[in-house]
Amino acid sequence: MFGHRKNQTESPPVTGRVCSLLEIPQGQKFRIVEIKGGPGLHRRLLALGFHRGDLVALDGEALLGGPVLVKNIKSDTRIALGRRIARKILVEPADENER
Amino acid sequence: MNDRVPVVVFIGQPNCGKSTLFNAIAGFKAQTSNFPGTTVCHAHSEVAWKGRVYSIVDLPGTYSLTPQEPQEKVVLTHIFKEKPDLIVNVIDASLLCRSLELTVELLELEYPMVVVLNMMDLAEKKGMKIDPAALEKKLGVPVIRTVATRGQGTNDLMDWVEKVLGEQRRPRHLRYSGEVENRIKKLAEMLPADFPVIANPRFTAIRAIEAETLAVDKFFLENNPDFKQDLDRLRQEISALREAPAYEVLAAERHHLALKIFEDCCLVRHARLSGLEKLDSFIMHPVLGLFLLLLIFAGMFYLIFRVGSPLEAWLLKPWEALRLGIQERYGHTLLAELLVGLVQGVGGGVAIVFPYFIPLLLLMGFLEDVGYLARAGFLMDAFMHRLGLHGKSVPLFILGFGCNVPAIMATRILESRRDRIITALLIPFIPCAARTTIILALVAFLLGPWWALGFYFLNLVVVAVLSSVLTRIFKYSSPGLILEIPSLKWPSLKNILQKTYFNLKEFIRFAWPILIAGSLLLSLLSFVNFDRLVNAVLSPFVSGLLGLPSSLGVTLVFGFLRKELSLLMMFQALGVSYQQLLSVISRGQLLTFVTFVNFFIPCLSTLAILWKELGRRIALVSVLLNLSVAVLVSWLVRLAFALF
């Protein structure tokens, strides 16, 4: 119904390119390759079930520089991440059929 | 087994239904909601089952055994200090994959344990087919299926609790991959003799490795320079294996174990988008979602007013008749004064509870139960950033509309102490259900709904301005929002009713008696003319600064107990009935008084919880802050009415 709106960045997903969670279109599968930032953030994300290598998809975003909604495909959990945090999570495009 | 009452603890990730399960077994003792972190201090109950008594403890939800939020530390302290006899690990079956990571961690304790697959109905709806027998085999502990909201499976659970306790069956931990496991084993063997071993050497070694960069690290290493060397070396070795910090390597090991078990025991069919998920994409929509948020709250207060106001008028009638009857019959005697006081205390309570308090609690319970609070946090995050906080505080403020006390307790879910203090200082400014009731009852009833809405708006502006000021004083760049959004759930009437009953019970048990006692006391004081003394002392402030009749001074004294008391006693102090109020004071005076009372000091229970949670200093700051804001804003209201 709703929520399939493209992200503000116009570029289509480029295979093999690493970018941050803020730069990817909604609804497509990506793989977490790196979590930058301090151990505090890192541990928090680990505890919430977001690890390196996990498949994730952008599921929505709030207005006016608000948080993004990230879904973990495998565990079917969702977390809201502030932009400053989302910027620190680097992802690469994954095959749509990957599980 | 000996005669000691065995301790059974419920542990699980936030929002997995622990509290609902606990309530199903222990009776209604724990608060539930579809918002992570409602059980901030643990509930505890003695339960008899087949002739034996068990002490059952419901701990706050925790994502892992590495504590980060203050409430998660409660869990660890409990496990380590008061060694439980049995762990009941509650799992949201629809989130099996992630939940198993905590299960793997708990197995490492090697305490007797059972696993509860809760919310099985939800998992099935999501297209998950879980094989409990396979899961039981992989984990090596009994697995029980429950649907706690319907009370299904609770007898089964208690039977297993009895059985596992009787056999003292201890599970075995699951093995990490060889190269990591070997190093943990090595460290476990190197633990100094005087080292505080928790549960078993392997578990202690894992905790020690993971303590890197945490505050507990110092505790582990302080007196053991030799051990520190060993630990550092092993951390480096483990870190080198995967080119990641050691704590991440261990977390990844558990993640893979959990993933493997999940894949072996659970089949996921292609899930269709359910009706709720479609609804959710509407609720979370950046534009429509915000619109809906506004609509929900406006609609909520409109509804309460539409229901409450006529009901209130109808409920007040007999009490008013009774009061007049008493005065006619007994005149100005002590007995008459006391009876009138009693009638006003009881009647005031009736006029608060039924028309406004119950509907508001029911609606708040509904929003909490379906999982709307976290969503409001998501939608409002950007806005909150402009006020120097972030979206995680939003659910707490919304809780504050119900009652400030649990809202302040729930500030434990905030990671940073600075955010916690500021949020806790702001919550007393949020009009709780009891205060909202008075605003609606007085302002809306006497001046009209738009005035009440305006007052509410003014209230929110005050909170926003205060937030900007406070966050500027306590400057610090906030780490940003990390908030789990639980899946939307169909509301459970049972949960909502339980929650309403809970809050209502508190009101009837504590607030209403105070109200009645206060009312009686005021009657007595006025009969012996003591109130005049209080009024005279407070007069320069009450009539000088705020321009109110000085007879209102005495009601402020009662406001220290509960704020709404001051407002209810206004009638008694002014010697008029509800409907006649505006014949003795002006609209401006009424609003000035309501404003002052609304802000002037956190009520006794809020103050107590602030003191307990954040210390005496913060509680004192809160009092001063409230007093100065109350004086300033109510003076401004007076000024505004004088000018326009």
Keywords:
heterodimer; A: alpha+beta; SH3 type barrels; 6-stranded antiparallel beta sheet; disordered N terminus; B: about 650 residues; alpha/beta; Helix Hairpins; 3 domains; 6-stranded mixed beta sheet; 28 helices; 9 strands; GTP binding (chain B); transmembrane helix (chain B); metal ion binding (chain B)
Number of domains of chain A: 1
Instruction: Give the helix tally of chain A.
Output: 2
**Overall pLDDT metric of chain A:** 80
- State the CATH architecture of chain A: Roll
Q: Quaternary arrangement of the chains shown?
A: heterodimer
Query: What's the order of the H and E elements of chain A?
Result: EEHEEEHE
* Estimated share of beta-strand residues of chain A: 25-35%
**Alpha carbon gyration radius of chain B:** 28 Å
Helix % of chain A is: 10-25%
Record field, number of beta strands of chain A: 6
What does the main sheet of chain B amount to?
A: 6 strands, mixed
Gyration radius from CA atoms of chain A, angstroms: 12 Å
Secondary structure: helix percent of chain B:
55-70%
Number of helices of chain B: 28
CA(first)-CA(last) distance of chain A = 24 Å
Count of domains of chain B: 3
Would you count the extended β strands of chain B for me? 9
Report the structural category of chain B. Answer: alpha/beta
Description:
The complex is a heterodimer of chains A (99) and B (644). With 99 residues, chain A is of the alpha+beta class. Chain A has one domain: SH3 type barrels. In chain A, 13% of the residues lie in helices and 31% in strands. In chain A, strands 1-6-2-3-4-5 form a six-stranded antiparallel sheet. In chain A, strand 4 and strand 5 form a beta hairpin. The N terminus of chain A is likely disordered. The longest helix of chain B has 43 residues. The model of chain B has no long low-confidence stretch (mean pLDDT 82). Chain B has a six-stranded mixed sheet with strand order 2-3-1-4-5-7, with helices on both faces. The radius of gyration of chain B is 28 Å and the shape is elongated. With 644 residues, chain B is α/β, with parallel strands linked by helices. Chain B folds into three domains: 161 residues, Rossmann fold (3-Layer(aba) Sandwich); 91 residues, Orthogonal Bundle (Helix Hairpins), CATH 1.10.287; 334 residues, no CATH class. In chain B, helix 7 packs across helix 8 and helix 19 packs across helix 20. Strand 5 of chain A pairs antiparallel with strand 9 of chain B, so a sheet runs across the interface.
